[in-house]
Amino acid sequence: LSWHGSYAEYVKAKKALFRCMKPDAPRIIDATTDETHNIITSLAKSGCRSIAIGSLSGLEEDMPTPADAREMAFLRGDNSLLTIVLDGIEYALVAAAELQIRGEHNQLNALAASAAALLIGVSIEDLREGLRSFVPLEHRIEPCGVVAGREFFNDSKATNPEATIKALSAFTDQSVVLLLGGRDKGTDLSELVAACEGKCRAVICYGEAQERFSDAFRANSQRDGQSTFSLIAVDSFAQAFSIACTIARPGDVVLLSPACASFDEFTSFEHRGEVFKSLVRELGSSDGQGQ
Question: Structure pTM?
Answer without folding.
Answer: 0.84
